[in-house]
């Protein structure tokens, strides 16, 4: 018996929101959805909701071949792996398994650096380009959902911790920051209703890209001002040269991150400052049926409800274990 949806990434922040909305907003029956994880430990919490559960580990092709059996539509969340060749190899496994299993439709969650183009210099983006190319070659019916830069990850962009002062960004440059919850809501709606429900949202280029972004590009300085507004502080804005930014951040970093971490991060930050994430697209607004939140609006909400807001990737050593 064919099951309508298999969702990867549902133990993570974005996929959890997609699953929640598919079940509770779009009223898709739990028995029409397969939830997946690399970990058997996740089984009980999904099966207790009436969902199917299968192991899907992008690093182990055999798990994918078994998981994708009798699946109509696959939500393919990009891997958390940061090494480009390793990430591309994992994604190749997903595509091969989807093809072998005869999956009918693949929604790949990619990243919006470089807009609709293929010229981003940022390391993270390269596996996304390679994956889109593999999807084209596969002959699968797919869409690449290039997701805007999460507003929720703003502590990472600014190396911001609730308990400390922070080093302002290396430069100005605008980013169409996007709320992770609204991305999840939009993706769930696309999966549930299909592209046919949104005639103006058409995949672009051979890579079949739909760009999902917030409604306005804002600078990192705007983000600092939003933090100040909620915390009633007045952070001095200092534009640092790259080396000085690395020195300042790594000197006494609260997460224990060293120079190498900030050197790698700088490439991403410079990509953002060069405007690689500034393109605003109306697709998310169309799919949500309302204007999405700007980055500064989301940050004000996040910090008002949670003054000690924490973003896990900002910490090399989790604070609870230090
Ligand atoms: N747009 C942005 O600004 C932005 C920011 C950060 C990340 N991302 C990307 O978006 C994805 C989702 O974001 P998120 O915030 O939901 O991340 P998250 O909370 O870290 O969750 C990652 C999810 O992906 C699954 N996953 C990761 N690697 C996998 C692999 N090799 N095989 C199978 N499943 C794997 C994990 O499943 P299990 O651990 O249960 O196996 C988990 O459910 C991330 O993986 C990353 O690629 C985008």
From TrEMBL:
Which InterPro entries does its entry note? Answer: NAD(P)-bd_dom, NAD(P)-bd_dom_sf, NmrA-type_oxidoreductase
Stored Gene3D superfamilies: NAD(P)-binding Rossmann-like Domain, UDP-galactose 4-epimerase, domain 1
Q: Which Pfam families match?
A: NAD_binding_10 (PF13460)
Tell me where in this chain the NAD(P)-binding domain is found: 9-155
**What name goes with this protein?**
NAD(P)-binding domain-containing protein
What is the species of this protein?
A: Baudoinia panamericana (strain UAMH 10762) (Angels' share fungus)
Its lineage opens with: Eukaryota, Fungi, Dikarya, Ascomycota, Pezizomycotina
